[in-house]
Amino acid sequence: MLFNSIDFAIFLPLVFILYWFVFKTLKFQNVLLICASYVFYAWWDWRFLSLIITSTLIDYSIGLAIVKQQQQKFKAILLGLSILLNLGILGFFKYYNFFIENFNDAFLLFGKPLDLNYLNIILPIGISFYTFQTMSYTIDVYREKIKPTTHFIAFASFICFFPQLVAGPIERASNFLPQFLKKRNFEIIKVKDGLRQILWGLFKKMVIADNCAIFVDAFFANPDAYNGSALLLGAFLFSFQIYCDFSGYTDIAIGTSRLFGFNLKRNFNYPYFSRNIAEFWGRWHISLTNWFRDYLYIPLGGSKGSKSKTIRNIVIVFIISALWHGANWTFIFWGIIHAFLFITLWLTNTNQKYKNTPTSKTAIPQFKTLASILTTFFLTTFAWLFFRANDLNSAFNYITSIFSESLFELPRLGDKNKALLVLIVISFLILTEWNARNDNHALEKLGLNWKKHNRYIFYYSLIFAIFYFYETQQQFIYFQF
Amino acid sequence: MKGFIKSIILFLIPIVVLAISLEIRIRHIPNSYELKSEYLENKAERIETLILGSSHSFYGINPKYFTAPAFNMSNVSQSPDVDLAILKSYEHQLTNLKTVVIRLSYDTLFEQLKLSPEDWRLKDYKLYTNVDLDYTLKHNSEVLAMGLKQSLEVLKNEYFNNTPLLNCDSLGFGKVKSQLKTIDLDNAGRIAAKRHTISSWHLLHKNSEVFKKIIEHCNQRHIKVLVVTPPAYKSYVNNLNTNQVDKMVETGIYLGEKYENCSYHNFMTRLNLIHSDFYDADHLNSTGAKKFSLILNSLIEN
Question: Do the Cβ atoms of B11 and A470 come within 8 Å?
């Protein structure tokens, strides 16, 4: 089920009413959440529910088995088994054909055709997200950071909680699991805040991301038909598309969770206001960045070894993170670009430079801050070109087409009115989010001090814009990961 | 909590009222699906030739030029699975049906309405016909399927732009202006060819099977099937992907050879139509449609 669908618009109020008015005890609320989450997932394809259930059973049992073991060796074997099974399922569905293709190509290069068969595999939605969430539970149990739960219903709800099931944020058991074990109370302030965050998420997805997609899809499908300046604009539009698509999803997920009394961790912190790439990675897809830091980078040795080992660790993390997004060389190239930029900062000891909010006390940024923000934005936009392209050749072709003589012409965009509209809504996004850069989300405080009718006009305007642009349900980009 | 629910309901009332008003207004506008459905419900026993397909046959085959009573049940973006569903849904009414003319265009084998960006059009079948298809919740409403922008455009076109929703004649033939204003057919052909060239062939098998089912369904009822590839302008034809064209022709020939009640006719370049016969690079206008329809009629008669 998509957040931007009519089905969800009916599903959510129904579950909300059942949750607060009918199923009032903790156990029944958790059972309801499991049922609702399974229905939510089965709406796409019921067959893959078995994978979620399998993952739930594996990690619940192994979590309990680990604490029962006295010897560290057996605990490690159990952890290894959990990782093997989880990554085995993930690897089969996500990477099987990628590796077969590359094996075939590699053997062909040496004149020995291998001809391994491809399989017609459907990638289950959200598999990378819930697999990482369930793995972090078992690893934390092994590391004795948390105690395994004996409440299966609570554990199953933690794994399949529908707002964040298919595209995160990837939650840690230490933060999220306890919320399933204690009574949730209806807090009107929290619920209203959740609704505002959902509204902003829908606006970002349906008004900005989906409208950017119209141009981006056309430009990437046929770059030869457009001039350089239009393609450059298309690259910037993709930056906004992917941000509004994914952070829009996250806003809806966090807002929806708040309706049910849950607090999810923040996943985006205005990443395009970052002043360097290191800061960008502290603000973009935060839950994944932290996951890789805690479960990959630090176990590899982090930055505690020699310079070369640290560089190796950074490269490994970025490449695995890139592969997490999908089995394609374009993602790997995207990861390498980010690794290179990050290592440059690390070598110059500036990767920890920015921890605070940019220009938190004044409305307008200083020239130096603005220049850093724009430079970081241009660099991320350049890297996104590889992320978006179907293959490396298409990415290089797109870049070559940008840097042609036609770069200095006026962009030939097709529907100019639509393009103007997109630029207006992007400007609105930038101003609104800049104004809210110290807040958890753009509408957290905006309008709260206004007169009621002004606030309502503002909300109605956002709703009007959402319905106005609701034509076809565009799937969220991160669903494919 | 109850106060909160009450204020949410009050907040939503204006939106719901607006949406319902818009829905009612649009549903009262006559449209071609409604007209076609009524015709099939009430006069289907007259029909001897039924034309099925997408915009290529909707604007390209005029039943008026057929000797035997004919009706055009093609619609924009209609895919073969919908053609089959139409045949099945109205099989009891179509008692005198002798021939089905069905288009096999360049993109036909590779697309399905419910999987295309045009899937909102399924609401027309749900709301105005008895065709049994795989509908979702949104197809029960004009506004939910189209969105606000398109709904407002429908009203604007109907009442201000003189572009009514009912865009076919009483025999189901699509009405178009003689040619798009200031159209550059060379450029339009290139763009349309690119749009119709498919990157994935995953629907090929499914659509081929649907064609077989249509022909078998007709065979059981002793109905002839004419699978036709409609004419297109040279700028369109010259920019097509050879593999995709070959697959289309190969499938047409295969169907014609395998089934006794079926014949395949490729008119993509055969008719020597000229610039003024086309509405755009891949759609005929009424002049072109007349020429094409007369040829089809002679084929049926022979």
Answer: no
**What's the average model confidence in pLDDT over B66-82?**
95
Q: Is A151 a catalytic residue?
A: no
Is B1's CB within 8 Å of A10's CB?
Answer: no
What one-letter code names the amino acid at B71?
Answer: F
Q: Which of A285, A325, A338, A441 is catalytic?
A: A325
Cβ of B4 and A188 within 8 Å?
Answer: yes
Contacts of A32 (CB under 8 A, 6+ apart): A15, A18, A19, A23
CA pair distance B121, A472, nearest whole angstrom: 11
Q: Which of B79, B74, B76 is nearest to B50 (CA)?
A: B74
Q: For chains A and B, count residue pairs whose Cβ atoms are closer than 8 Å.
A: 42
Note the Cα A418 to chain centre separation in Å: 27
Rounded to two decimals, the ipTM of the complex is: 0.75
Q: Is the pTM of this model over 0.90?
A: no
Residue B228's SS3 state is strand
Domain chopping of chain B, boundaries: 31-135+169-301
> β-strands B99-103, B224-229: how paired?
parallel
Residue among B12, B115, B138, B191 with most chain A CBs within 10 A, to mutate: B138
pLDDT grade, residue B244 (50/70/90)? very high
With contact defined as beta carbons under 8 Å apart, do B264 and B218 qualify?
no
Cβ contact B11–A456 (<8 Å) = yes
Query: What stretches in chain A show pLDDT beneath 70?
Result: 360, 472-474, 478-481
pLDDT digits (tens, 9 = 90+) for A206-257: 999 999 999 999 899 888 888 899 999 999 999 999 999 999 999 999 999 9
- List A residues 396-455 in contact with B (Cβ-Cβ < 8 A): none
CATH 3.40.50.1110 fits B31-135+169-301, yes or no: yes
Instruction: Report how far residue A479's alpha carbon sits from residue A129's, in angstroms, rounded to the nearest whole number.
Output: 10
The predicted-structure confidence for A87-126, as pLDDT tens digits, reads as follows 999 888 888 887 788 778 888 777 777 777 777 777 788 8
Tell me the shortest Cα–Cα distance from A244 to chain B, in angstroms.
20
